[in-house]
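User: Continuing from earlier, I have the next pair ready.

Assistant: Great, send them over.

User: Here they are, in order.

Assistant: Folding the first of the pair now:
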Amino acid sequence: MNVRRGAAALAASAVLCAGAAPAALADTAPPASPSAPPVIPSGLYGKADPTYDGVWRQSFALLAQHTVGVKPAAQAVDWLVGQSCASGAYASFRADPGTACDDKTMYDTNAAAAAVQALTALGGQDAAVRRTVDWLKSVQNEDGGWAYVPGSPSEANSTSLVISALAVAGEKPAEVRSKAGKSAYEGLLPFQLGCSAEPAADRGSFAYQPVDGKLLANPDATAAATLAGLGRGAAVPPPAEDTPAAPLACPAPAAADPASAARSAAQGAAGYLAEALRKDGHLTAVTPGADQPTPDTGNTADAVIALAAAGHEQSAAGALEWLKANSAAWAKGSPAALGTLVLAAHATGTDPKSFGGADLVAELNATGPAPQGADTGATTVESERSGGSGGQNVWWIVGAGAAAGTGIGILLSGRRKKNQL
């Protein structure tokens, strides 16, 4: 849920283009010089190139601010609303929102889903939210799921994000059906590794997409699917009751309805996340060019939120402490990362203004226009936290072959490896 956009468009482009003309890609010389990055709009949070993540990072910045009682700047909200196409669709970023969207616009369901969550929480944008919800419904695949780029095969990450957005906006995902009659939950649940999966430790997890017909456990997809199955968005209040996470129930009990089946699947997914966190207090991922897994800060934060949403705050306690000690470098200057940490703190009843020695709220506010009622003369906040790396740059070129591998949901969802957005 946090730093999603960076690799997403690159990966999607690689996948779409590689299938069409791999030889041409191999033989084409790179451009002599990169094009100039777009100018950062005054209402946008973050100082890095927003081409692939502008809407995403803005949405999570605004959602996190609202969650802790900060009223975002009006120009920041207006910027997000203005990124929408007339149909309600969103691209990852539109440098000139005054130009109408057309058949050359690369639409982004993840950006649209994040915007729905933020604008619903802020209120006062019912018409804009309704248009985007209707657009998301219009690009549902026949199997009930969604893809990052509409028209592509469904995958668990995008399907989960859209389901969460629909639920936050007041829709019932079990009743949102494709033209073929498949519900949103029917589009999601086939990605879960069930009671016959091997190794047994992977049972309950979700895959990004099948690889050669096989589902491979993907923590990123699993965290997102946990929220979706529970009908929750990223802004999660602390659980009223706290119980230990349990493994996927096997054999699976009969579900009375699709929503009940989704909730059971979400609890199994939470059990997988809790066990994956148990060893080191964090999740790991193998990044391109590396031969060993490294800590995955973004997915760890997502897992904390997912476990809290499922009522398993204590199962997330170790990961929360790891984040306090190791997330500073990953989050510095990144509104999406800082926003996600604020949401993780909120979900566990932790003070985001005292998170491992840092004031996450002040750091987040400092990445964009001053919130309403704030002192506009405030200085930039620098984190005093020590520790961990966990922040890798996402400007990777992801090939079509790599996109089929385990963990690639992390790359195609783009949430993970950008420490400056």
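And the other member of the pair:
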Amino acid sequence: MDGHILSGTRELKQATMLERGARAASGFASLGIGEDGAVAMVLRNDFAFFEAAIGASLVGAYAVPVNWHFKADEAGYIVRDCGAKAVVVHADLLPQIKDGIPADVSIFVVPTPPEVRDAYGIDAAACAVPPGATAWDDWVARQPVWTEPPRATRSNMIYTSGTTGRPKGVRREPAGPELQAVATERLAYVFGVRPGTGVRTVVTGPIYHSAPNAYALAAARDGELVVLQPRFDSEELLRLIEQHRITHLHMVPTMFVRLLKLPPEVRRKYDLSSLQFVVHAAAPCPPDVKRQMIEWWGPVINEYYGGTETGAVVFHSSEEALKKPGTVGRPVPGGTVKIFDVAGKELGPGEIGEVYLKLDGFPDFTYNRMDDKRREVDRQGLVTCGDVGYVDEDGYLFLCDRVRDMVISGGVNIYPAEIEAVLIGMPGVQDCAVFGIPDDEYGESLAAYVEPQEGAELTTDAVRTFLRERTAGYKVPKLIKFEHGLPREDSGKIFKRKLRAPYWEKAGRQI
């Protein structure tokens, strides 16, 4: 069966996707976009994302996904920084970014589809291509099919989240056929997506993010079926798995937590026996959450670790997860992991330091227009994603926290992720975030923001008691707040930086 993509009631066959991508390539070339050029995409999960990315790749340009939450200044910065000569944007998102787009950049507007409109509660009138704008579908249809040989492949240029200052574009070197084949095999190893194996998947995460982006493009190229979920919904995902006999998924631990919070009768309602290979990444998964998912879905849960800069360097299976609770795995073939202290000394088994990674055969990168920032993350040819962790005596990597999230209270290093992994298991807790805030006596103290489940009644004393019974006393947060609707990234992860920043601004200092 030929591959195809589904979104709501709409279908795009793989052959049509490739043809439209080839037409887009001709159109991009007519705008002067060629090797090392760029096409920006401000899109939710939709067909146009694949078409534009293919078109950019064929002419040797970088496809640049832009976080669709961005407003004019934020989106405009990325368009200018990457040098894009074209922007492809959903109709309802155009008003929020158009004032930031340079006048000499061509803008192509995609009608916002009904399934996206319904998922986000968008006004129907805002979903149509506005008068005077260039409609993407019409423009692509007018272009001839690109017939020139494809250029050296440039992977999509993903902009990092920008925890400090502006986001940085990860500009990877072009890859010829041989290097591209190696990179494709590396992705297949961790994603489980290989041509001719009948892969059927649901893309649950936003494809402007690095990992869902790479996964979605690989599945669209080599899979049998890709179902686009416009916005993650726990029960809807279970329904899609049963309906379409889904075999593969790419997820994040937050999704696992939400799935496990579903009532038992809902979880038992759907047939999930088609699942063969589920992989997750993006954040450490609490061991108890991983164990419960394996008990529910079977030994199909896998995990990898890496970053936009490094690729997926570490991987492990369900069996290894149960044997080594809390690990993110061991290096894949061609992968290297080393731990260094702040002075640059390489550390041994069990010693905690900053994690550095390398994947042989993966094209090197720099930060677009920021070579100095690239040098800052390099040590002995390895690159750090900013995580703290250790390798055990068997070579398994364990993460403690992000470097920037580690709290030093009274000279003691505290890793909030460890506390969050415990707190998420408390009955009535939907989600939580633990972070450091200023403390006159200790330098920093712990704060916890807890999002209760609907109808749950939680108290500060109950949270502290729960934690004291399971962790050391110094890990119990001094400040505990309960809030519904915590700020989130589109992947579902809590925007911890937004919670933390006001406390440090009030104190007149930053961390």
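Worth noting for the second one:
The chain has a mean pLDDT of 92. Residues 13-151 form a domain with the Rossmann fold fold (CATH 3.40.50.980).
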